[in-house]
Amino acid sequence: MSQEGRGKFITIEGVEGVGKSTQLAAIQRLLESRGIDYHLTREPGGTQISESIRELILSLSDEDVDANCELLLIFAARAQHIAQVIEPRLAAGQWVLCDRFTDATYAYQGGGRQLGVERIAELEAMVQGELRPDITVLLDLEPQIGLARAAQRGALDRIESEQADFFTRVRDTYLALAQQHAERFLVIDASAELVDVEQELLARLTDKLGFTDNE
């Protein structure tokens, strides 16, 4: 969590098609309106090396990707991302807004791939130390609705091409994480109209951050 002088670390999570890009833009506008210096990034990705690993993870391939290989690639990308981008910026007082982080690994690899939490927790401790998000926005949506939305965007990547029961496990794991870490999660119903989702998100995030009308 943030220490005095450090920037805040805000992450946004959810299954495919929940509208993360739209709501990330809304959060950006909120931070800009408050004069907050922030950096927008994503996982897997955020650095040249991490983006190359992202391509490996998401690209369709004739070769089956072992679940443990996928998990290790994700944490390799995360280690580079934290070392080169996230930690230096937070330490310098800049806020970091990240499209997905380790909660996604618990949801997709722990829940979706059914790898469980122990090995993920071990890698989390090794790669992150005590680094955790200050606030995590979870856009919650029935996976079938989200997948239908995602399909309208174009060709699906390797993970988006998984079966419906995979995404049901992902969503269930996200909701369990939100219960377990209620102090940092904001769970937003993403099934409503986009403008209504944005209004709820911004109202609750403003309150969570302690912003006042005078700021």
Question: What does it look like?
Answer:
With 215 residues, the protein is of the alpha/beta class. The protein contains eight helices and five strands. It has a five-stranded parallel β-sheet, sandwiched between helices. 33% of the residues are buried. The mean pLDDT is 93.
Protein topology:
Elements: E1 9-13, H1 20-33, E2 38-42, H2 48-58, H3 67-91, E3 95-99, H4 102-112, H5 118-128, E4 135-140, H6 143-152, H7 164-180, E5 185-189, H8 194-209
Parallel strand pairs: 1-3, 1-4, 2-3, 4-5
Summarize the structure.
Helices cover 53% and strands 12% of the residues. By secondary structure, the chain is an alpha/beta fold.
**E-strand count:** 5
Indicate the overall shape: globular
| Portion of residues within helices | 40-55%
- Which residues sit in consecutive blocks of at least 5 with pLDDT less than 50? none
Give a short account of the largest sheet. Answer: 5 strands, parallel
What is the ordering of alpha helices and beta strands?
EHEHHEHHEHHEH
The CA-CA distance between the termini, in Å, is: 23 Å
**Count of individual helical segments:** 8
